[in-house]
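User: Fold this; tokens only.

Assistant: Input:
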Amino acid sequence: MSTSVSPNRPTRTAAPAPSAAQGVWLVAEREIGSKLRSKAFVISTAILFLVALAGVIWGGFTASDTSGVPVAVTPDAASQVEGVAGLDITNAPDRAAAEDLVRDGSVDAVIVGDPSSPVGFALIAESSVPTNLLLMLAETPPVELLEPDETGGALRFLVAIGFGAVFLLAASLFGGTIAQSVVEEKQTRVVEILISAIPTRALLAGKVIGNTVLAMAQILGLTAIAVIGLTVTGQTALLQGLGGPIAWFAVFFFFGFILLASLFAAAAAMVSRQEDIGSTTTPLTMLIMAPYFLVIFFNDNPLVVGIMSYVPFSAPVGMPLRLFLGEAQWWEPLLSLAILVATCIAAIFVGAKIYENSLLRMGARVKLREALGA
């Protein structure tokens, strides 16, 4: 007895494999979705935002409480303090007389006209300039110290801490998360299913893009908090001074994060157990922390900060700091960014090769020479 199949009955066909671009987007969506469903990630992000908001508001109100700041002003700089509330102004006939007022402690700082300054005036202080005074001025002027101390100004240190802490926390948090995700997929064999549907490099690209989107969202959130906090506390002058450096920080952070995310994923692919992640990612963590601490501890050393503003792993902190303090020429951030982008591209190629050669190897840790092999 023969059977026949109705010609009108639909037949099942295999779903076409996703293209490389579709595969990247699917992995990125998966990474973003898993983070947003994680209570730990959501709570830690909320705490970060709350702490940042509290810090900005507290700092803004502290800076706005500037009644009685004693400053001397020479005639050629009198227009710079017009409309600035909270100053106890002493008029000095000339620069020499103003410096004498600083030395004998009558005033904390002197505002003098300076044709060579980009903003038309300069500040003179004994060993350090009061942070509140710098925050009150519409533009950050050059600073001259009569008796410089070894630690530098407080504002320089605070700005270095601010940029450095954001970059360090984001890079460490997301770098560690990427590494754990890669090893977890290896342990559970999920990666074998994934790369049967999409190319290995598309899987890596999706992970990097997904986590970059989340990290940049946090940066934009922190930027919005800074704008709101400074606006509420009336620190619009400081907000104007920080606008450019913050924008540059976001650009540097974007490429710096892609650089680190690619390397973290590649390093994690070399091991097969969560317990072994530290053996391959510790060098990367040191690459993040060492430049960060150099910029923080040597923030008052223009030579060290200048060098670190060109090192790819510390440029996202060093260059915005120099821009805020007016120590960088207009072309320097462009050159530093070009170096960072070139390093980022090289890291992507190297990281992709390590990731591709190590992802399916189970058991003992893959040696770097083998991971870089053809």
